[in-house]
Amino acid sequence: MRVILHDLGNEYRELIETKCDRSVEADGKYAPCQGCFGCWTKHPAGCFMKDSLQQVCRIIGQADELIIITENLYGGYSADIKNVLDRSIGTSTPFSTYRGRQMHHTLRYGMHDLWKVIVYGDITEKEKETFRYMAGRNAVNDGFERSEVLFIEDLSGLEELL
Questions:
Q1: Cα separations (Å) of 153 from 15, 16, 59, 60?
Q2: pLDDT 10s digit of each residue in the chain, 162 long?
Q3: How far, in Å, CA of 154 to CA of 133, rounded?
Q4: How far apart are CA 144 and CA 112, in angstroms?
Q5: pTM for the model
């Protein structure tokens, strides 16, 4: 399944929906993660908060290919994208295992193929370096075999990258 997580406005909805099986809009109309770890223990892969991200763990967990479209924020994800990723911690379990000679949480949904990040907006070379490192580590932590980071100044060329 191909999932696109994005912080774009409604004017991109039709484009996004034609390029994926599921989409998650990081629009900020949800609560931030409370850090209760209920999605690990009490409600596996589900959140107790009844909002648009209640099932985001299951959506992201079932993605073979996750494409994240985010505005650059000092070499990191936009705040709205970061909130969605925080709420998706239930894609793993509280148990630990070794993957690639490093300790990581056990994956609830198994391994995935591609963690792809499309970053738009102004970005320095140092921020690009930070973003590549962070996305690579996120991919490993969430069980993705490959990661890719693409940088664009504006969204006019977005369709060709999807």
A1: 19, 19, 29, 27
A2: 999 999 999 999 999 999 999 999 999 999 999 999 999 999 999 999 999 999 999 999 999 999 999 999 999 999 999 999 999 999 999 999 998 889 999 999 999 999 999 999 999 999 999 999 999 999 999 999 999 999 999 999 899 999
A3: 22
A4: 5
A5: 0.95
